[in-house]
Design brief:
Blueprint: E1 7-11, H1 15-25, E2 30-34, H2 37-46, E3 53-57, H3 65-73, E4 83-87, H4 92-97, E5 102-105, H5 110-159, H6 165-183, H7 189-195, H8 197-203, H9 216-219, H10 227-234, H11 236-250, H12 257-268, H13 289-304, H14 315-324, H15 332-340, H16 342-351
Parallel strand pairs: 1-2, 1-3, 3-4, 4-5
Helix pairs in contact: 2-3, 6-7, 6-8, 6-13, 6-16, 8-12, 11-12, 12-13, 13-14
Length: 353
């Protein structure tokens, strides 16, 4: 039962203030205490269950209340804890301006202290409940969208006379490459974390969605395309972008990170690092990172797997060709990473043939 009682953290360097607040609140809450901001932050980072609210004095040695609150604001977890400043009447406006949700003036009036703590905890509980509901609905919507897009990917693969394994392989290649880049602290690691690696990997499934708009006589031609046919084939990137943008309108979410990655990958996975790709001739970091990753995954798969127009290539030969494209066709950092994990790529290819 004790773990259901909300916890309140009281931070004040004056022991008498702490004792008074403990006495006022002890019947309704678990109370933990700290003598200054530094001690309080150390305690917070060691807790498995964070307090529902913090009563924070302003003027303390080592680290005052304003400094502690500023540090909390930069922490994605700690910034969610509401803070009530313990203050004097002439500091109330400064306390609220600093980001506190409320203030308690000295000397303490037990009824006011109880009411203000109770009200803020109830607001926090209500806010948390709303966030949970939104998260659940968002997860449901994302799952529905994901299932729809994956099904569409299967349709594309079957139309290409593939077994449906191609989009899985390229997803696995993307996942393995991103994992290596993040775990090894690559220059792209921080950006990848912000872009949500799992979503990039899922979005890879729609890299060729635009091929729906390519005529069968070109898409299924068992040989090299002539220049006019190749120009038509190249339009699958723009068609893919248009399809995803229509999806964005349909679901009324043009800011969906999932659909943004789908659009960027479908549109830009044939761009080249040296600017000689299509459809826009983007170069270097102007090409979205997700699309640069998708490009390597797509090319590797095209090299080592049989198509209607070609035989499969040995794994070592595929790596040699990719290495030759370092800095011209492909991002150099990504190319080096593929070379480092080429055994994992080979394993993925064999397991998903």
């Amino acid at each position: 039962m004790a773990d259901r009682i909300p916890t309140v953290l009281v931070v004040d360097d004056i022991e008498m203030n702490v004792m008074i607040l403990e006495e006022i609140l002890k019947d309704d809450y678990n109370i933990i205490t700290a003598g200054n901001g530094k001690e309080a932050l150390d305690k917070l980072r060691g807790l498995k269950v964070l307090p529902k609210i913090i009563l924070l004095d302003i003027f303390m040695p080592e680290m005052n209340g304003y400094q502690m609150l500023e540090i909390m604001k930069s922490d994605d977890v700690l910034k969610r804890i509401p803070v009530i400043f313990i203050t004097t009447s002439d500091s109330e406006s400064e306390a609220l301006s600093a980001g506190a949700v409320d203030f308690i003036s000295k000397p303490f009036l037990p009824k006011i202290v109880k009411l203000r703590v109770k009200n803020q905890i109830e607001l926090k509980n209500y806010s948390d409940s709303l966030e949970e509901m939104v998260a659940e609905k968002t997860a449901e919507a994302t799952a529905t969208l994901d299932n729809t897009l994956q099904a569409l990917s299967y349709i594309i693969e079957y139309r290409n006379l593939e077994s449906g394994s191609q989009f899985k392989r390229t997803q696995f290649f993307c996942g393995a490459l991103i994992q290596y880049l993040v775990e090894t602290g690559s220059v792209h690691a921080d950006m990848l974390r912000r872009l949500q690696p799992d979503i990039i990997t899922k979005a890879m499934a729609l890299h060729d969605v635009g091929k729906i708009g390519i005529p069968d006589r070109i898409l299924l031609k068992p040989g090299k395309l002539d220049p006019d046919e190749f120009e038509i084939m190249k339009t699958h990137t723009t068609v893919g972008k248009n399809i995803v943008e229509e999806m964005m309108k349909a679901v009324k979410d043009e800011d969906s990170i999932y659909l943004i990655h789908c659009r960027d990958i479908a549109y830009c996975h044939h761009e080249r690092y040296d600017g000689k790709g299509y459809p826009r001739g983007l170069a270097g970091t102007d090409i979205p990172l997700a699309a640069r990753i998708a490009s390597l995954a797509d090319v590797y798969d095209a090299l080592v797997c049989a198509r209607v127009y070609k035989e499969a290539m040995p794994f070592g030969e595929a790596i040699r060709i990719i290495t030759e494209g370092r800095g011209t066709q492909f991002d150099p950092v990504l190319t080096d990473a593929v070379v480092q994990i080429q055994d994992r790529f080979r394993e993925i290819s064999l397991q998903n043939a």
